[in-house]
Each structure stands twice: as C-alpha cells, then as structure tokens.
Design brief:
Strand content of chain A: 35-45%
Distance between the termini of chain B: 71 Å
Oligomer: heterodimer
CATH architecture of chain A: 2-Layer Sandwich
Helix content of chain A: 10-25%
Radius of gyration of chain B: 21 Å
Number of domains of chain A: 1
CATH topology of chain B: Ribosomal Protein S5, domain 2
CATH superfamily of chain B: GHMP Kinase, N-terminal domain
Number of helices of chain A: 5
Number of helices of chain B: 5
CATH class of chain A: Alpha Beta
Structural class of chain A: alpha+beta
CATH topology of chain A: Ribosomal Protein S5, domain 2
Order of helices and strands of chain B: EEEEEEHEHEEHEEHH
Number of strands of chain A: 12
Mean pLDDT of chain A: 95
Largest interface: A-B, 38 and 37 residues
Shape of chain B: globular
CATH class of chain B: Alpha Beta
Low-confidence stretches of chain B: none
Order of helices and strands of chain A: HEEEEHEEHEEEEHEEH
C-alpha cells in the first residue's frame, strides 16, 4: 500500500526527518532485572526491548560434549503492539529469535568451551529471553543490541555440589567478540536503516547482516516479499558493515 | 550427523570426489503425488524432497482470506526418519523459520494478486537429509508450482554454497554442512537474475561472500535448465495405453472376420 511514509521514502525523506542511514536515538541500560544473571534494555526511538539471561545447568548436545548451550527465545508480548496476539511464538518471533541466535553463535561471541562444567554431562545453559515491550519497527537490531548487552552483563553463578547458588557469582561471562546486527531495508530504489513501524510496513525487502569487529560477516537473513539483485546485496552488506562500527561504540564496557 | 576433526578436502577433492563448485548427481521427477494439483520429487545426492502444491484454492476459514490478493502457505517438514537421529514430529523452530524464508522465496515470483481470497498451499517433506535440504525443497516446490499451473514470473532455482577447510564450495552435503565454516542458502529467479532468498551463517569476509554468491548464481542456472527439461519432458505425449489396446482388439476382430 502506498502511504505517506512511502511517498516520503521514495524522495529520500523520513517521517521524522532523519537521514536515510540514520538510527533513532539509542539508549542501552544494563542490570535492570535483579533476578536475572544478566539483563539489559534497548530503546531505539519508541521501540523497546528487554532481554534477560538466566543461567541454568543442562546436558550438552552429543556432538558438542564440552560446550555450553545458547538458547534464544523471543516473546512478542501482546502489550507491545495491537498487531501482537498472545499464545505460542509465531513465525516472526521465531525468526527474530533464530536470527539473533545465529549472530551470537556464529560470531563465537563467547567461548562455548568455557561453559563446560563436566564434559559430556553438565554444561551451562544460557537462556536468552527477548521480551518486546514496544514495537515501533526494527525489532531485530534493537533486540540484538539488548541481547548482546545482557550477555555482557551476565555473571556466572557459584556452584556448590553442582547446585547453583543464586545471588553468588563465580565470574563474569567472557564476551570475546562483539557482533552487531544491522538490518538494511530497500523500498523502490532507495535504501534505509532503522525503519519506524510506518516505514517498515512499506519496505520491499530487508536484509539483516551480522558483522563482527574484524569486519567478517557471520549471519545473513533476507526478509520481505520482493526480490533483489546481487548488486543490491553488495550495497546492503557494505552499508551494514559501515554502520555496525558506529553502533558497536555503544557497547563499550 | 556428528562433527569431525578429519579433513573434508583431500588431494584437492571433496570427500565424495566432487570438485569445489560441483553439484551432486541430481534427479527430478514431476507428478510424484497424483492427488496434488502439482508435485515433484527432487534429490541432490542423498538429500531427497517431495513437494505437492494445492491451489490456488478457496481459503477457509474465511477471515483468513485477503480480498486484494491470494496468499501462500509453505510448510517445510523433515520426516521423522530423515536424519540419523529421529526428528520428533510436529512444529520445530527451525521448521517455522525455514518455512517462512521459503515462502518469501516464492512471493516475488507467483502472481498471487490475480487470485483474491485464495491460497496456494505448498507442502515440502524432506524424506532423506544429507545437507542442503531447504534448497532441495525449493527446487522441487518451484517445479510443482509450475505444474500446478500457478502463474509465475520465472522458476525458482536454489543452491547452497559455503566454506569448508578454507575452501569455497557449492552444494554442501551433510558432513560438509555440519563442519562448515560458513553456509549460505540462495534462491534465485534465474532468467531475471534476481535473488529471492538469502540466508547465511558462519564466518565469511565480504569478498568470500560475493565469490560464493557468484558460484550460487552459476549453479542456479544449471539447476534451472534441469528443472525446465524435467517439466517439458513430463508434458510430452504419453502413449495412451487403452487406445492402443482397443486398436489391437479391433484389428484382431477384423482379421477373424476376414
């Protein structure tokens, strides 16, 4: 549907007068949930996401007996948008969780081998739960910033006779890489970053790119119901690489 | 399939003897499910997918209908016996995501606007998995959709590419997939040279990524030629068995009279 937001975008303009490659104000807060081993919130304009990390003990997968597990889950809580409904995670929530998961896992943001307790028997399970609080577009980028911040905030609890002593901590979770996910959107022949909801509703294609600090690419996910050329992808990847360096500065210790 | 520490490339060849950008042996069969409006079965090496397409057909319940356009539903499912470890039946998060990405691979291609209030249902079952299952499913789905008569701008051809032992390769099999440094799934409209699906995980430099996309593009074109040939072949006139038998009977009757 051709809306006001669409008419502006095809003329290189935004509804809030930002530049096409400009993000809204970003506010990151850590340590906001006291019962979680790590937590953070990210506000991106009016989009708000809270992430809590709970550390648990579980059995490792048979093909990685000495590696901890990462479990990312996303909840599109009905309070966040008139479009969300209660019930089990839908297609979009599942995709968001898996794209965030891939960005963290594939970039080896943390050394999974350090999360082994007893090889083949007990390992740390990092449960990263993403809660959408307000949906005003660009959920993936916002959720990723919140998730990585929450992991950087995470402390590993003390163990006594293999039982978790909640509230007592052994060490910090070592985050060794800082990947950033940037979603580049295309509408007609224009490219833009960080769409607000009204803009997101009219874009043709989105490409989420996870970029590590060494400029390697560790995840891609194309979304949206339109096709793109290889040249478009090149431009989108390059835009994401440039922007990721800027966003990473927000993650300083 | 388990991880391995063994080399995946020995003497400049992959473990199954293939060259780096070489596809596995491909078989394609149209009308694998008689009941369906369109269907196909495709295998890439030991990976085998069967797809049927129903529709465009009326969508119920009615509140799901869209008055301006038809919708598409895409189900990617792995049969419980398709892998070394049993896959428990029912929805998985992986399946939900792949189904969505696969559906989006077809949305730019099918003229759904011409069929308001209808649905095109695409059902993909992976019967046997040895890597690259989603792209094998897409290749079969594309053919099944064409045979079902869904108007399309182009066929969709899909291919996986990736990196193993530092080498860029095409069409990853199971062991390569499980031990890859990166894998990328690409679906294209081959004659229009447009990409409709792109998913990647692993670690790649920008240059590696674009070398791989080029490799995927070339292989998608090869796959497209095979798809086209298989579809054309399936529409060649089959000898009508009953007609032949009747003719033979008539001939015999004439002879006995004569």
């Amino acid at each position: 549907m051709k809306t006001y937001a669409y008419d502006l975008l095809v003329n290189d303009k935004r509804i809030d007068e930002r530049a096409m490659d400009e993000y809204r104000d970003i506010e990151l807060k850590r340590g906001i949930i006291k019962n979680a081993e790590g937590s953070a919130s990210c506000r991106l304009g009016n989009t708000k996401v809270i992430v809590g990390v709970k550390m648990g003990i579980g059995t490792p997968f048979s093909d990685t007996p000495d590696e901890g597990n990462l479990i990312v889950n996303a909840e599109f809580t009905p309070l966040a948008s008139p479009e969300f409904e209660g019930g089990p995670p839908g297609e979009d929530a599942t995709e968001l969780a898996r794209v965030v998961d891939r960005g963290i896992r594939e970039s080896e943001a943390m050394d999974f081998k350090k999360l082994c307790i007893t090889s083949g028997e007990k390992v740390w399970m990092m449960n990263v739960d993403i809660h959408i609080i307000n949906h005003d577009g660009n959920l993936i980028d916002c959720a990723f910033l919140a998730a990585l911040s929450a992991l950087m905030d995470t402390k590993i609890p003390k163990l006594q006779d293999d039982k978790i002593m909640r509230g007592d901590y052994e060490s910090e979770l070592a985050v060794q890489h800082k990947p950033i996910e940037v979603t580049v959107c295309k509408v007609a022949d224009k490219f833009l970053l960080d769409p607000a909801k009204e803009e997101e509703d009219v874009v043709d294609t989105k490409l989420t790119v996870a970029v590590r600090e060494d400029d390697s690419i560790c995840a891609l996910q194309k979304q949206g119901a339109k096709d793109v050329s290889i040249d478009d992808i090149k431009r989108m990847v390059e835009t994401a690489m440039a922007k990721s360096a800027e966003l990473r500065k927000l993650l300083k210790e | 399939m388990a991880k391995t520490n063994d080399k995946l490339i020995v003497g400049g060849k992959r473990l199954d003897g293939r060259g780096f950008d070489e596809l596995r042996p491909i078989t394609m069969r149209i009308r694998a499910v008689e009941k369906a409006d369109g269907s196909a079965q495709v295998s890439f090496g030991d990976t085998e997918a069967i797809v049927s397409v129903y529709g465009p057909r009326k969508l119920y319940p009615r509140f799901l209908q869209e008055n301006e356009r038809g919708i598409m539903r895409y189900r990617y499912n792995m049969a419980p016996f398709s892998c070394t470890d049993r896959i428990s039946p029912g929805k998985s998060r992986r399946g939900i995501e792949i189904s969505k990405a696969s559906r989006l691979a077809f949305e730019p291609v099918a003229f759904l606007d011409d069929f308001p209030t209808t649905v095109v249902d695409v059902f993909t079952e992976i019967l046997q998995a040895d890597g690259s299952t989603r792209v094998t499913g897409i290749n079969a789905a594309s053919m099944a959709m064409a045979v079902a008569g869904v108007p399309m701008r182009d066929l969709v051809a899909a291919c996986s590419v990736g990196k193993i032992d530092g080498q860029l390769i095409a069409d990853l099999n199971g062991i390569e997939d499980n031990n890859s440094e990166a894998d990328v799934a690409v679906a294209m409209m081959p004659t229009k040279d447009r990409i409709t699906m792109l998913q990647m995980d692993g670690v790649l430099t920008k240059d590696e990524l674009f070398t791989l996309l080029q490799m995927a593009r070339e292989n998608c074109r090869k796959i497209y030629e095979l798809q086209k040939a298989a579809i054309k072949d399936s529409f060649k006139q089959q000898p009508d068995v009953t007609a032949v038998a009747e003719a033979a009977e008539e001939e015999a009757a004439k002879e006995s009279q004569g």
